[in-house]
Amino acid sequence: MFHKKLSWQNALVLGASYFFYAWWSWKFLGLLVLSTLLDYSYGFLVASPKRRKAKLFLWLSIINNLGILAVFKYYNFFALQFQQGFELLGWHTHPVLLNLALPIGISFYTFHGMSYVFDIYRGHQKPVRNFIDYAVFVSFFPLLVAGPIERANHLLPQIQKTRNFNFSQAKDGCLLILWGVFKKVVIADSLADTVELIFDDYTRYNGFALLMGALAFSFQIYGDFSGYSDIALGTAKLFGFELLSNFRFPYFSRDIAEFWRRWHISLSSWFRDYLYIPLGGSRNGKFKAVVNTFIIFLVSGFWHGASWNFIVWGGIHACGFLPLLLLNRNRKHLTDVVAQNSIFPSIKELWQMISTFTFVTFAWVFFRAKDLSHALGYIKQIFVSIYNQPQQFLSAPTGKNAIFYIVMVVLGDWYLRRNERQYKFTNKVLLVLLAVISSVYFIKQVLMGSNSSFIYFQF
Predict the structure, then answer these.
(1) pTM of the full predicted structure?
(2) Is the dihedral angle over the CA atoms 314, 63, 271, 187 positive or is it negative?
(3) Which end of the chain has fewer CB atoms < 10 Å from its terminal CB, N or C?
(4) Is 304 a catalytic residue?
(5) Exposed e or buried b for every residue in 91-121, given b needs 16+ CB within 10 A?
(6) Selected catalytic residue, list 112, 264, 304, 333
(7) How far apart (Å, rounded) are the C-alpha atoms in residues 182 and 432?
């Protein structure tokens, strides 16, 4: 029955998606359904040939979606900022704070809905009449809680046609899932212990150990998030769907612009298409382009969390992007791959990768820290410790075991760097080895009772 009738297929996928979400918290399932209903309705209203009416409902959709995010994700942040501002003026206020859990995946499914309405307003997408089809687009369970953020014109056509089991596609999906689980369970979860140990009590460690902690987090968040994305893409393949790529080996980037074309691709392209370009992009001169660049990076930082350290993280990346923009070098590496026709990178490419990765790792300190003062204290401790005790580099630092896991993922990514979808391990011994290692580490995590939730579930 399910393999022949499209409506039954989509009803099954939707039911599985809602069950998946309700398993985390059934109370917030209603919010997901409400958000879906609102944007489904706005889609028809925004399609009106009367542009004034269409624009009105576009803005209402934006207000509704951002309002949901504001209440659950940003209300307490703004309330406390206003309180501090009034106190500087001598006015003492006592704002009411909301004790609400952050609904999992709220940033992702609201962005799905907003992009759908935007595309209809622009004439790139027609309203979907079948509510179940649209609901599957918003809440498809592999991408519901941590992306990638799909586009309506890419995923909806796949939802609206009957899907048959394809062995080759399913096999590729299983390989993607296996590699994703390896990066999450073996790499990210193993590095998490080092990261937590060093970041949570950084004043106890010397600068060398703190550098190791920052390096470990760079690969923890990469293994964690890209691992989830691989699992999501692989799971979708089992159901006959092809999702957008979310990572293309970002740590092999040769500048910050290339890094953002390879890291969390679905989010960076979303901000480009629905914020940067509508603001004017780079069409109105360099000054406007610089302003728009800072806006998009600061908003990206704020999207990740209601805290100043995330905003500073976005600002750091804006500063790194700015020289490339001013020198018209921000679109240099659009399609080529590092060491495309050779086994090893050139000296120039190696230096570019190392300098870009160092910049990105420095910024990650602000992302991982509990707050801005924590991040600044961490960085200050690095420089003070190294200045006072340069001999510390003569002995192995705390967290040195992290190097083992980092080397594993770097070698694996280097082998696959020319095609992020080419997870075709022809060596069956290697395939079995990956499966066995992932299983052993997973069992170890379960027996130890470790918290191995995905980092991006909190966004």
Answers:
(1) 0.91
(2) positive
(3) N
(4) yes
(5) eeeeeeeeeeebbbbbbbbbbbbbbbbbbbb
(6) 304
(7) 12
